[in-house]
Amino acid sequence: LSAPSPAALDSELGDLLQEFHDVMEELRTPEHSRPEQYQEYLRQPKRSSAVCDSGIEDSDCSRELTPNSSLNTSEEDLNTAGTSAVPKAKLGDLTELENFIENLDRELAGM
């Protein structure tokens, strides 16, 4: 798979910005605007982003977009391998921090 050329990306971005500008202009002039026509269009991306938008590239959603990528599978294996072994700290649980500080104090005292 090759990356799209910068010219193609510029063209696509220009098209998207023009479409956005056109919609904004249409919404600014209420006598010509029909905002209800955009409601379903706006709901659809929200639905799909609510399912997939974790903000992390190696999420299940990105793997669905590129199912043949071995990199995504490897990252998933790395991410899930340690998740079950490490308990999540609860808010206010400072036990690990206190233990670390005690060990650090001992090390510094021994120097």
UniProtKB/TrEMBL annotation:
Give the signal peptide range: none
Which Pfam family, any one, appears in the UniProt record? RGCC
Bias (Basic and acidic residues) occurs at 27-37
GO biological process per UniProt: regulation of cell cycle
Domain of life of the organism in this record? Eukaryota
Record region (Disordered): 27-84
Q: What is this protein called?
A: Si:dkey-27i16.2
